[in-house]
Write a structure and sequence with these properties.
The complex is a heterodimer of chains A (265) and B (355). Chain A is of the alpha/beta class and 265 residues long. Chain A has helices spanning 44-51, 74-78, 96-101, 116-128, 144-156, 174-189, 201-207, 225-228, 231-238, and strands spanning 6-15, 18-28, 33-37, 59-64, 67-68, 81-84, 162-166, 193-197, 210-215, 218-223, 242-246, 253-257. Chain A has a 6-stranded mixed β-sheet, with helices on both faces. In chain A, a hairpin with a 6-residue loop joins strand 11 and strand 12. Chain B has 355 residues and is mainly α. Chain B is 75% helix and 0% strand. Chain B has 16 helices and no strands. The A-B interface holds A 52-54, 73-79, 81-95, 97-99, 102-103, 105-106, 108, 110, 133-134, 136-137, 141-147, 154-155, 158, 164, 166, 171, 173 and B 1, 5-6, 8-9, 15, 18-19, 22-25, 108, 232, 235-236, 238-239, 241-243, 245-246, 248-253, 291, 295-297, 353-355.
């Protein structure tokens, strides 16, 4: 198997002197929708931040296209790798179109002003996320679900083959969660490589084509959801006794937590 | 993300009329360009006023003679006093307006002003220290000490805030701490030593009155150079406005950007403060008013703040010369008296944009 576009090589990653992950190795396969999951504080967001070069490993390396990500100019990386962080900030009074346009930053230079190409890419990104009719609206007047689509459009305007999404569904209600995940699945079908951190096991099993399950800073299981979402793995990762059935909608694994003995009384 | 907002989404019927009222992007750009032209025109008018109006009343003929005829009676006042004063007002006002806009953009804090980097206190502390140990010295030396003090203070704030790991919140806290400690130190020295108090009085209220003895060329070059750097930071600052994480994803290194921004602010505000003394409200109020007109795009906020800062300071200075004739009110006082209530009005009207 050839190495994917993003590879973590024997990395120690953490905040300050506290290491969250030690000796971690992960290979993100090209063209897959990879979902990283695990219990709170398992290191999944830490891993995503390392992939996004927001954290520099104190040992080991993160490779983008085979080269150390920290040795490449950050703007060049930004043309390969887009990032939607957990809580991005929308400046007060900014319009949807202006926010999406900021995704063009890595394609611009001091002398290279706003071009027709930029204009076209921004319009496409807004069309792909179904927010074209919101273009002149203020971002602060949108609902959570609309706002999340605006942010995804901003990252799409960056035109990167790789997309990293840090808990893109966390603050949304269930309808908007599914809407965002359907959008992610569409972006994946169009040929992009996606990596997302998700909380919901069943959503991960339904949408991911590749799963990375983590616990205590280590990868516990990795592979296609159908192969690794088993009662054993779920117990190993989440300490959750469960049954696995086929999702009646999609046939993907569906995790049913077991009722506690005491609750049955 | 409140329930009220999601309720609004349920009513798409409201969208159509709303979209119709919104100005099209093109007309918004047209408005911004027109505003810029109006600002330049206002600046030119104010510059003429600043040369023509002063505590000594003269007609336009005398002003013209004062500019063109070195032998005329009005030449010493017009060319040797008012002209450098006008140039200094333009340069210092532009520097303070731009430094304030940069500071607010960099810290994502709408209440930040260059003073928060310790620039004013640093300058004051350096001047009192020098005058305590050396005794009396000239204006050029004062400027030099003040500039060094401003630079040392902003570097200290940056280091205390954690240098490369500095966050907007830590910068603001470190700045507040250094400012408080600096003021305590300045007051203590002034109380201990009456001669220092005298030396400081000449400097401590913001004023353009010493323009004719200031080294204008270095002042204008320093401010001009730092202004070019500052305005070029507009695009990365636009990315930084979306949060440090988003900025990183877009290919901006927030640490590098903060160093560049702090350097530009230090030179801009440090130079202005060193020559004029502390003038506080320009850097705080001007970017607020500007953002209410231009919106949050730094490509417009920064040049607008620069020109508006120059216009505001020059207008305040001209006003200060005429309201208490034949005496003068220092520009720092006029700025505070005019800017303070206006700022309160903006806050109460909630026109102040959250960053």
């Amino acid at each position: 198997m050839t190495a994917g576009p993003l590879v973590v090589e024997n990395a120690t990653i953490g905040y300050g002197r506290v290491a969250i992950c030690e000796g971690l190795s992960v290979d993100i396969p090209e063209g897959e929708f990879t979902v990283i999951l695990g219990p709170n504080a398992c290191g999944k967001s830490t891993l995503l931040k390392a992939l996004a070069r927001m954290l520099k490993p104190s040992a080991g390396r993160v490779l983008l296209d085979g080269k150390d990500i920290h040795s490449q100019p950050t703007r060049a990386v930004a043309r390969r790798l887009g990032l939607l962080p957990q809580s991005p900030i929308a400046p007060d009074g900014i319009t949807v179109a202006d926010l999406v346009a900021r995704g063009r930053y890595p394609h611009q230079g001091i002398l290279k002003q706003w071009s027709a190409e930029d204009e076209r890419v921004v319009a496409e990104a807004m069309a792909a996320t179904d927010i074209s009719e919101l273009a002149s609206r203020g971002v602060d007047e949108l609902s959570g679900g609309q706002r999340q689509r605006v942010w995804i459009a901003m990252v799409l305007a960056q035109q990167t083959p790789l997309l990293l999404l840090d808990e893109p569904t966390t603050f949304l209600d269930i309808t908007h969660q599914i809407e965002v995940l359907d959008l992610c699945a569409k972006l994946h079908r169009e040929g992009r490589t996606l990596v997302a951190v998700l909380h919901d096991l069943n959503q991960a099993a339904r949408y991911a084509t590749h799963l990375i399950a983590m616990r205590d800073g280590e990868v516990v299981a990795e592979g296609a959801p159908a192969d690794i979402v088993t009662a054993d793995t779920v117990r190993q990762v989440f300490d959750l006794p469960c049954r696995i059935i086929d999702d009646p909608e999609t046939g993907t694994p569906l995790v049913i937590p077991k009722a506690l003995a005491s609750a049955r009384l | 993300m409140s329930t009220a907002q999601s309720a609004r989404e349920q009513a798409p019927a409201l969208d159509a009329p709303r979209a119709a009222i919104e100005p099209a992007p093109r007309s918004r750009t047209a408005r911004r360009v027109l505003g810029l032209l109006a600002l330049v025109a206002a600046l030119a008018l104010l510059a003429v006023l600043s040369v023509a109006v002063g505590s000594r009343a003269m007609d336009l003929g005398q002003v013209w003679a004062g500019l063109t005829d070195a032998g005329s009676d009005s030449y010493p006042v017009v060319t040797e006093l008012r002209l450098p004063r006008t140039v200094l007002g333009l340069a210092a006002g532009a520097a303070l307006g731009l430094a304030g806009a940069l500071m607010q953009a960099m810290t994502r804090n709408p209440l930040a002003d260059p003073g928060l980097l310790g620039v004013n206190t640093g300058a004051a502390a350096a001047v009192v220290t020098a005058s305590f140990f050396i005794g009396s010295f000239g204006f050029t030396e004062t400027i030099l000490f003040a500039f060094l003090g401003a630079a040392v203070a902003s570097v200290a704030v940056y280091l205390i805030a954690g240098a490369a790991t500095a966050t907007p919140a830590r910068l603001a806290l470190a700045g507040a701490a250094v400012t408080a400690a600096g003021y305590a130190y300045v007051s203590a020295i002034q109380l201990m030593d009456a001669a220092t108090l005298d030396q400081m009085r000449f400097w401590s209220v913001g004023s353009l009155v010493n323009a004719h003895v200031a080294p204008m060329l270095p002042v204008v070059l320093l401010i001009g150079g730092a202004a070019v750097v500052g305005v070029l930071l507009a695009r990365p600052l636009n990315a930084l406005a979306l949060g440090d994480a988003t900025a990183t994803g877009l290919g901006v290194d927030p640490r590098v950007l903060r160093v560049a921004g702090i350097a530009a602010i230090t030179v801009l505000a440090g130079t202005a403060t060193a020559v004029c003394g502390p003038i506080v409200f320009v850097g705080l109020v001007v970017p607020h008013v500007v953002r209410a007109f231009t919106g949050p795009d730094q490509n417009w906020v920064l040049p607008y703040s620069m020109l508006s800062g120059a216009a505001f300071l020059l207008a305040a200075d001209v006003l200060g010369r005429v309201i208490a004739r034949p005496a003068e009110v220092q520009v720092g006082i006029v700025c505070a008296v005019a800017g303070g209530p206006f700022f309160l009005y903006l806050v109460s009207r909630r026109k102040v944009a959250r960053l």
